[in-house]
Amino acid sequence: MLTVKNCPKNRLGLREDLTGLQFCTKTAFAALLVCSIACVGCQPEPSAGTSAEELTVSELEELLRKKKNNTTKALTAEKVAKPPAPEEKKGTSSLKTPPDNLPQPKVSSDGNTFNWGSVYQGEVVFHDFEIKNPGLTTLIIENVKPACGCTKGDWTKTIPPGGTGKVSLSVKTIRLDAGKIRKTADVITKGGEKMILAMEGEVVAAIVQEPPPAKRGLVKVSGVPLEPTKITLRKGTEKAFKINKVSCPNRIRGRTSPPLVALELLAFEDGNYELAVTPQLPLVLDPDNKVQFYTANIVANVTVEGKTFDLPVNLPIAIKKRIDMNPKSVYFYKKDSDALDKPGVAPATKEITIKSLHPDHSFNIAGIRIQGEHLKARVETVTPGKEYKLAIELAKKPNATTTGKITETIFIDTDDDDPNLQEFKLTAIFNMNEPTKNSTNPAKKNLEGK
Fold first, then answer.
1. Three-state SS for 341?
2. How far is residue 235's CA from residue 270's CA, in Å, rounded to a whole number?
3. CA-to-CA distance for 154 and 262, rounded, in angstroms?
4. Does the reported pTM lie above 0.70?
């Protein structure tokens, strides 16, 4: 027990007593603290099974302190083991780089070939190929490339992992020859994988056109009337057919102009038909009209064995002047040049036909002018005043170091009274590279009457 004595009332005595009191108080608190620590240290650590209600306040504070120390040590060790992640700026996001061994998407199909069996020429064949993606990532189909223009394709652009899509192909048979047909299309994916799909079958010509589309056409010359042309449509098999109607949407100029052709369909007892086509172009053509070619897109709607479809019966009409030169260009190749070094081998020669297309017109060749050093030309008369043949001969070998193409020009002068028909230009092209199998001489396309 602490006893406090009475102190004198002077300041000095009061200060001495207070000082003594403070010292005694501090000494007492220090003694109590030492005793408390000693008591806690002697107490056993509470077991894990001791409930929180049986613990004293001091024991709970000690447990919390130890828990805090252990957590701090664990966090410190973790910070040492792992460097801190870079701080992300607001408004941005970071993406982890995918592993290099990520499985690629795959493309597969239960059947890569569809056989349509037998169809009639003029029908359009459709088929949907089922495309599967057994891979683990999304399959992207970038393109479907048919091998020819008669085949068209559409497809599912993306197919999820384990999903199914389709590639739709169609084949127009109107321009295909009768017989066995096979058409293909390449399916190209984003990863570079390629699959080939095929459609095949037989095309039967139920209706035969005479003359065939590739061998018919008309030539219109100003001042010369055009006679009707006849196209026969007959049975190509034992199956009968019926033409429901024929039509042609083309007009000479705009929508309000006259029809391009008039059509007349005649049916015969044997089941065949004859189509008479009469062009409606004026007798004298407008000299300001620069159109050089028309196509009458005639359509015959037919029915064969319950199948109804449209059969094109097109008729081309070429507009030409009364003097026509065909072809308007000639081609020479390296093999023609090499032949000049071979004894006894005639020089390569190309022929040009120049003739009048008007029955009441005549003309003469007045001269030939060659701009170049490798050619010679001579004129042969086929029919005086009507038709001439121009022979273009390779007379000089081009320089051995020359590569690519050389172009020379030949001018043919006539005595026609039309200034537009007094000079014709012919182009000669030297291709010093060997022609490939797929190369085509454009001059061969300029067929007479086309």
1. helix
2. 9
3. 38
4. no
